[in-house]
Design goal:
Blueprint (H helix, E strand, L loop, with lengths): L5 H29 L4 H16 L1
Length: about 55
């Protein structure tokens, strides 16, 4: 399971996850500043989507 090149294989996935996290954070902050009324509904949609993808 853990081999000598596990870091080289996992690093692109870690980097991709960090980029998606940064985009989601900036998008959420942008929605919160531009129209706060739709922030909580989109938060719940994103949370349910995250749980669905995890499972």
């Amino acid at each position: 399971m853990v081999g000598p090149n596990v870091i080289q294989k996992a690093l692109p996935f870690v980097g991709g996850g960090l980029i998606l996290t940064a985009l989601g954070s900036f998008g959420g902050l942008g929605v919160m500043t531009s129209s706060p009324a739709i922030f909580m509904p989109t938060f719940w949609v994103a949370l349910i989507g995250q749980i669905a993808l995890f499972l």
